[in-house]
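notes to self, project folder thing:

trying the whole complex as one job this time. last attempt i did each chain seperately and stitching them together was a nightmare. two parts in total, labels are on each line so i dont mix them up again. if this works i'll redo the older ones the same way
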Amino acid sequence: MPDLSTTFAGGIQSPNPFWLASAPPTNCGEQVMRAFDAGWGGAVWKTIGEPIMNVSSRYSSVDWNGQRMMGLNNIELISDRPIETNLREIAEVKKRYPKHAVIASLMVESTREAWHDIVGRSEDAGADGLELNFGCPHGMSERGMGSAVGQVPEYTEMITGWVKEKARTPVLVKLTPNITDIRQIARAAKRAGADGLSAINTINSITGIDLDTFEPRPNVDGLSSHGGYCGPAVKPIALNMVHQLQNDDASRLPISGIGGIGTWRDAAEFILLGCGTVQVCTAAMHYGYRIVEDMIDGLENWMREKGFDRIEDFRGFSAPKVTDWNHLNLNFKIVARIHAEKCIGCELCYIACWDGAHQCIHLDGAHTKPSEVEAASRARIAMTPIPKLDRGVASNGASTRVPRVDEEECVGCNLCALVCPVENCITMERVENHLPRKTWEDLVNGNSH
Amino acid sequence: MGAPVPFAFQDNAEIALRFPDLHPAFDRQEALTEANRCLNCFNAPCAAACPTHIDVPRFIKKIGTENLMGSALTILDANVLGASCSRVCPVEVLCEGACVMLGYNKQPIAIGRLQRYAMDYFLERGGRLPQKTDQQRSQKIVCIGAGPASLACSAELAQRGFSVTVIEQRPLPGGLNTYGVAEYKLRAPDSLREVAMIADLGVEFRFGVSIENENDLAALEKEYDAIFVGIGLGAMNELRIPGADHPDVVDALEFIAKYKTAGGLRVGNRVIVVGAGNTAIDAANAARRLGAQHVTIVYRRTERDLPAFGFEYEHAKLEGVNFEWLAQPVAIHTYPAGPIATLECVRMDDERGPVPTPVPGSNFHLLCDMVIPAIGQAPHGWLFARTHGPKYYSGGDCVNGGREVVDAVADGKRAALAIVKSFEGVHA
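result (full assembly):
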């Protein structure tokens, strides 16, 4: 049985790497305890600070292809409950669940006293670690907190420094992606002694506008405000930023990965790029705490299949496989191959290659243009096959619609394989050209093999 | 529900209750999900299979973006009877039967129901067909018959600025769409609503007009520059056996027309339908829904030779229709008091040659109190044979031997385009 337990950022223990991110699912003790019962290994408490007032509505989403919530946006602020209530409940949770990780997410006004005060009280309540919310992109930033701190290296370094003066538990800095280079802030946090990073916070967004009322979403009495975007849509952005942080010596710290994680597969990818734990919010808001069951089960099964006993066995395994474009092999040649027996004749590869790539997929021996193909089809007379009137009429002839790749012209871009709806119908095959590995860097430096 | 139907018609609440939609309308979420499932094939096989070549992926993608007006106009541009076709087309052997999803062991895209979704939106908002030209053309065209072929022909010509008259011997337009399609597929009021949209183009309809003789034709030739003959097939073939003149022997089309448009709810308790084509199945299912306890289709060949579409056969079984294979009616027997008592049949043998032959001495009786012959329609006699010559065009069932509404629409539109072409260079 693989061991999922983790020790993160120099001392935060949890039975598995799956934490709930600081957000509505970790708003109160009752919720966090139910989450731990469901299987979550840790919870970052909904950000604690001077209570705020919220608006309604607060969320809006982007649906895609009939699926709900490909991306979620929120304009909710930090906790609206008194600091004492949150701390009392943290103490209660820690008493009942001593083996689970409870991290206090904090955001207070930018004075040394305020930060010393909240750090001390949180640790007294029993928090296993602290997460500094320098990422919240809406509302709080207009009051000089959240991403207003996290977008300025000097502020980040200063406040992280204040916290480190006081803290006895590991300090994580939560990074905002709403910045040109996320490493600038990570470096500042590291300089100030942070023990770990949480990345990424939500991305500034406007999810859409109602085309009947002309009002943007989420609608608050006819107006809206930019919010924080999260959910499956942001995962690729988060993965890249996690990699940037891992790949930079001055930034490198233990990372708790955040951004579009909803399944064990997502989690495995973040861990493969170096994350020690992962945090989840949107998926839990969509389906409830119960999703963690398959996250644990699926990750264990995958680890067993791959022969990994512990998270550390594969953490960061794929990080070196992401490199600069300069280091990619220019002599690596692949071409598309269409497996006729799997082809269903949709011809999406043909039109994609003609309009979106390099005109090297054809429907016949000739280079017939798409418009000519369509015109010929429309000119054909078709009739309803009536058994009584036409015995033995042929089928629709889908098998005659298998396109052909001109392998000489194919640049191996992948587009046809990406648009093909049938799994493994178009495969990209290596062409042996007997050329040595050569990169752009080699060319520029005049290296030859 | 949209524009008022200008044709006198009393909707029947009980019929509506007994014949709910076989394929209910999609709601918004269903339509969006289904539309997004469409792969958007290039040069799509569904569009090629459609006799009117509706650009199926295009109208479906417009549903996906909720451009429903654009979706409906895409459909109507190819097929002016897109609303009725969405309900009556045998999509299993047309667009949906050509869907590439079938090659992937997946359900084909529900093209028919998506088409209905777009067309319902259009009609419920009183959508109007666009004109294809600003020009008013001087030529006059008459269409004989107000069925799908003539409707398609007249709409295309009216959209191109010609003045068109449709003459019809029955009191209502729509042909089989109004009188003959099973009500759970297409309600008569929905057929009429679609015709109203065509009438709105300025097409003139004259009802109760029949072409009886050469003088009638001569009058048309004199008044009109072109004549489209869309008269469909003739009367149903009669069951030529003793007792077939009994009043409870009612041919299938008459039976269907009565319940659809004349409030005819009367049906026997034990009904036998003779023949196994699509019309026979429509009649048998209707008899069940109107209250018959036992409905049996009697067919002289086997299940293997069934002329109806496979999906119609499956539907009939679900409706509780029984099938008596290899049986040929020989006589209808009545009680002394008058009602039908039995249908006497002879067993057929299909293993001695290509045509089944009666087995001597194998006669048997099937209890019944109503017999519905559905053994095909004869072609029209003199009128169709007479109509050749430069002014005449024709299409639909009278030409193709009895196919589907969509084939009639394709014919009617092709004829209209040929008529337009014939006028080119003619200065009026």
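what i see at first glance: DSSP finds 18 helices and 13 strands in chain B.
need to look closer tmrw
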